[in-house]
Amino acid sequence: MDWKKIIAGITVGAIVGIAGTFFALQGRIAKLEGIVDQLRGSSHQIISGESQSEQHPSWPRSPDGKYKAVRVVSGNDEHYQVKEIGTGRIVCTTHAQYKTPNKAKAGLFSPDSKKIAVAYHYGQGDNYTWIGIWDIETCNLIDTKRRSGWTTDIYWVFTQ
Length: 160
Known about the structure:
By secondary structure, the chain is of the alpha+beta class. It has 2 domains: 1-40; 47-159, Methylamine Dehydrogenase, Chain H. The chain has one helix spanning 3-40, and strands at residues 46-48, 67-74, 77-84, 90-93, 104-109, 115-122, 128-135, 141-148. The strands form 2 sheets. A 5-stranded antiparallel sheet has the order 1-5-6-7-8, with no helix packed on it. A 3-stranded antiparallel sheet has the order 2-3-4, with no helix packed on it. It is elongated, with a radius of gyration of 22 Å. It starts with a helix and ends in a 12-residue tail after the last strand. Residues 34-55 have low confidence and may be disordered.
């Protein structure tokens, strides 16, 4: 038995298998990137992730194209400012449930572009997500929701 040929055959087989897996994963990644691009263009644009520059091209806009939501940091707090795209005027700044430091985890414009929902996480006693819903024009907090556990999935807020 020629062990060198057997080992070489096994090695080549492993490399071919790894390459096949790599190319299959690249195809899946490309599909996921396409889905993300579709979501960015949809009327239900989720706002999440790390703080970004206001000039970032992926900042979500309201479905009517009138507003954009910009993450702003002040000390240990992080919230959203809703700005008119045409004028840059700040029309609303969100806030957490309590005055203790907190950071916005996700946000979502309503399909009619009149409201914004923003999620904040809390974890004293039990972990939960508090979601505030603001009227954009008046910046009044008009409703709140609470979900057990920490989540950034808030698509359901405007469907109930």
